[in-house]
Amino acid sequence: MRETIRGRAFVLGDNIDTDQIIPAEYLMYNPAMPDERRMFGRFALIGVPKAQAGLPAGNVAFVDQADEANTSSEFSIVVGGRNFGCGSSREHAPLALAEAGVVAVVAEFYARIFFRNSVNGGYLVPFESAERLVEKVQTGDDLEIRVAKSELANLTRGETYALRPLGDVAPIIEAGGVFEYAKQANMF
Amino acid sequence: MGMTMTEKILARHAGRDRVAPGENIWINVDVLMTHDVCGPGTIGVFKEHFGADAKVFDPEKVVIIPDHYIFTADSKAHRNIDILRDFVREQGIRYYYDPDFVRGEGMPSPYADPTKTHYKGVCHVALPEEGHTRPGEVLLGTDSHTCTAGAFGEFATGIGNTDAGFVLGTGKLWVKVPPTMRFVFEGELPPYLMAKDLILAAIGEIGCDGATYRAMEFSGDGVMSLNVEERMTLCNMVIEAGGKNGVIPVDEVTETFVRARTDKPFEVVANDGDAKFIYEKVFRSADIEPMVAKPHSPDNKECAHRLKDVAIDRAYIGSCTGGKVTDFLAAAQILKDRPTKIPTFIVPATTEVHSQLRKQTIDGRSLEQIFLDAGCEVGPASCSACLGGPADTFGRLNSALKCISTTNRNFPGRMGAKDAEVFLASPYTVAASATTGRITDPREVL
Asked: Do residue B412 and residue A19 have CB atoms under 8 angstroms apart?
């Protein structure tokens, strides 16, 4: 894991479920096939109702859809509220965000399976914020996550917010996922 | 200090005398289930990490049930079923339920006779039908509603492709032991209530994140008086409160059901007398009213009678939550005497449920005939429009429709269009609403 993670913010609200992150109509793509895996990046967050996409203004495209070959986003840190990633167990959700270029999500807390999938699959780092950031950070803000200090700096607004320590899952994130972690522990 | 059922099952599968909530432990898995949407990715993860020639940890413990994208012309969906077929052949997997009518291009013609296909349909209903849910075991599946199987007194939860790929290779997974919340329902249900009303009341009480990282146990004579299918409805929806697993104590009803479907031995696990629960809520069943979860969240609860002015465009009865025989018997009680006023879609969860729709009768008419006579459209067994799926999916909401549904989830876009609105309710309430075109408390018509 990088010591600092810097990127532009894409801000969402509460209960962003996996159908909003990657709607079911795109799940026939097989993530094990590279050409199809990329398509998850193209359609990441396309299920979020437009008014709630890119707060506070809304109506911000996470991935520019005008260019059909585009599979990446200009936003690499997603900021969410409560219960981020609730709903289905589809691993396509953190995978889609990662394919679009997201390195970290910062939310108040996560739905369990999304959190697990993010960590065990090594897709992105799911940080928990100590306070609600949805009304403090704006889409497009320049953010820097300082991992060792467990803090998030908003370089655009000159503010710093506390993050919760990664806790139990830090060794798995450090290893890069559950397979690497298990190998280091000589499980197979 | 004593342990809850969930703690005891996990301890046993970790080879330990005891575990405590919050501990991370490695457990042995009894059954791993996957389907057509997550199977191909899971197989990819397995091959990437264990090698192209690797063998699964135990081909008898892997159950593959295609159910999501079956009745679609989408060629990738068909390709994904072929990936499952190849894997099953290569690994010698015994428990695979092939949609044998899916061959080649275009929209497949559904089975003509649901008793004459290997295909089953929705995995969470097929698992118990085929004897794969057994008390005291650990069942993991690549689907969030795997928690349904907690109705059989086992630990069952949903996982992602990476975790499932790991389990395929090792038969193990790390889990964090959840504390248990207990929901007690006292008194048998009045005739207008169903398990769906109870679980919507419980989720409404704690919120759609109220059980995050927790187990939800359902008990009390109200729960133990329910049949197996209704118990499944309770556990099915714990994920809608963020729950890790749902669980119901094992009794004769459970054991009779399971023993009729499998010869495999199992060991019943019960709560210790001094088990500690992190939360306890007692409901009197008779105090609960027919419930609706309004758009766009399963915890957005309201009593059905308070929504009687809400006009709706469509009704949907199906899914792992609301597409079982009990659900259709309830709907048929209402639809046997009344035509529908709005398009109403009937989707049996499995082919076994579908054959029961043809076999079971009320006043000489089969349930399927009752639905057809009431003006419903009856589709083949599948997950179908519960999760939207490809645009050609039966019953999918392809525009800004208002739908009342027996399914489990109503976040934006769940059943198709982002601007569609989904109201979740019991089969009674959905059927009653189908006959009036507005949200209707079933007490108005029962």
From this structure: yes
CATH number assigned to the domain comprising residue A141? 3.20.19.10
The overall pTM is greater than 0.80: yes
- State whether residue B315 is helix, strand or coil: strand
The single-letter DSSP state of residue B237 is: G
Confidence (pLDDT) at B194 = 98
E-strand spans in B207-341? 215-219, 245-247, 279-284, 291-293, 301-303, 314-318
* Cross-chain residue pair A19–B411, CB shorter than 8 Å: yes
pLDDT tens-digit profile of B76-118?
Answer: 999 999 999 999 999 999 999 999 999 988 999 999 999 999 9
* End-of-domain residue from the set B176, B200, B228: B176
Q: How far does the CA of residue A131 sit from the closest CA of chain B (Å)?
A: 17
Residues B340/B374, Cβ–Cβ less than 8 Å: yes
Provide the domain count of chain A. Answer: 1
Q: Which residues form the domain of B275? A: 180-287
Domain of A145?
4-184
> What value of ipTM does the predicted structure carry?
0.97
Q: Are B216 and B151 in contact (CB under 8 A)?
A: no
- Are B51 and B74 part of one and the same domain? yes
Task: Give the model confidence (pLDDT) of B307-319 as tens digits.
Answer: 999 999 999 999 9
Inter-chain touch B142–A89, beta carbons under 8 Å: yes
Domain co-membership, B277 together with B372 = no
B142 closest CA partner among A102, A121, A64, A143:
A121
Best of A112, A115, A118 to mutate (most B CBs within 10 Å, chain B):
A112
Q: Are residues B265 and B334 in the same domain?
A: no
Q: Torsion angle of alpha carbons B251, B252, B254, B258, nearest 10°?
A: 140
Contact B223, B185 (CB under 8 A): yes
**A22 near A43, Cβ under 8 Å?**
yes
Q: Under a CB-based contact definition with an 8 Å cutoff, are residues B377 and B343 in contact?
A: yes
A20 part of contact set with chain B, CB < 8 Å: yes
What pLDDT, in 10s, does the model give residues B263-321? 999 999 999 999 999 999 999 999 999 999 999 999 999 999 999 999 999 999 999 99
Q: Looking at residue A185, what is its pLDDT?
A: 86
Nearest-Cα residue of chain B relative to residue A37: B41
Closest in B76, B80, B242 to A86, CB measured = B242
A15 contacts B297? CB cut-off 8 A:
yes
- CB distance A28–B76 less than 8 Å? yes
pLDDT (tens digit, 9 = 90+) per residue, B391-403? Answer: 999 999 999 999 9
B311: domain CATH number?
Answer: 3.30.499.10
> Number of helices and strands (H, E) in chain B?
14, 20
CA atoms within 13 A of residue B381's CA, in its CB half-sphere: 36
Domain shared by B224 and B326, yes or no: no
Test A49 with B174 for CB contact under 8 angstroms. no
Among the candidates B287, B314, B340, a domain finishes at B287
Domain count, chain B: 3
The tokens for A105 are 């999500």
Asked if A31 and A45 count as a contact pair (C-beta separation under 8 A), the reply is no
- For residue B95, the distance in angstroms to the closest alpha carbon of chain A comes to 22
Q: Does A140 touch chain B (CB under 8 A)?
A: no
Residues of chain A contacting B209 with CB distance shorter than 8 Å: 15, 82-83, 86, 109, 111
Q: Is A3 exposed, middle or buried, given 0-12, 13-18 or 19+ CB atoms closer than 10 A?
A: exposed
A28 contacts B74? CB cut-off 8 A:
yes
